[in-house]
Amino acid sequence: MTTKIAWITDTAAQLDxxxxxxxxxxxxxxxxxFDEGVFKETVDMTQEExxxxxxxxxxxxxxxxxxxxxxVTLYEELQEQGYDCAIAVHVSSGLSGTxxxxxxxxxxxxxxxxxxxxxxxxxxxxxxIEIGNxxxxxGHDVEEVIAAINKTTKHSKLSxxxxxxxxxxxxxRVSGTQAFLSNLLNIKVIISFDDGKPVMKEKVRAxxxxxxxxxxxxxxxxxxxxxxxxxVIHCNNAKDAESWKEELLQEFPNLKAxxxxxxxxxxxxxxxxxxxxxxxxx
Length: 282
Hints:
Layout: E1 5-10, H1 17-23, E2 25-28, E3 31-34, E4 37-40, H2 47-56, E5 62-64, H3 68-80, E6 85-90, H4 98-108, E7 112-117, H5 123-137, H6 142-153, E8 156-161, H7 166-170, H8 176-185, E9 187-194, E10 197-205, H9 207-224, E11 229-234, H10 238-251, E12 256-261, H11 264-270, E13 275-280
Parallel strand pairs: 1-2, 1-6, 6-7, 11-12
Antiparallel strand pairs: 3-4, 3-5, 8-9, 8-13, 9-10, 11-13
Helix pairs in contact: 3-4, 5-6
């Protein structure tokens, strides 16, 4: 008897509609809290609407994870639809409590859910769902799929470069002095994920040097293993992301590359104009 398995993720993955339909993925929206209310990502606002709000916001917005009640409701609906279990790939627990809430919600219902801490966000979450589906289609059981996805979390990379430190200052990540000096001296910080948490790795002068630093990280992984595909990620900065993509394809013509927006919840902290790279090495 074939096991019917549901896929669940949150909007940190930024899946497009074709991917959602192809893999039958159920989405739990993350939210942004402005003075005028709570807005669910992809449901109550588009990326463009978010950045319009962010530019004029008098109070710095906050981010919010999906409510446990929403998760419980989804799990119960999936059970009613005849699913035997679900695999839930969530944004890093170092960024959000979504993974912990998913575990709690799973214990509250009579339905088997396998919550996975991606230890990252964005593009690698997409690859985890793709890898899982491929293994299921080849006849692997759920436990083997979970093990493979957890292994993938250890080989997933994401680094980004905020255009400035204004939003990081507003969200309390850096001091006002740091933000002022960074803007004055054109100092760029490079933020990379380290064991599930975003960490400021480098400070360099000028965006060009920052991009080279991140590209060097990619080159290093390419020397150690295989990186068939990358994603150039951004916060409402598709133009610069496309330009970076073209630069990379000139150096690596056989590389598969795409441009992906980051979740607006990243935009709350990193700010508009952010760009970066993400990949999974094998």
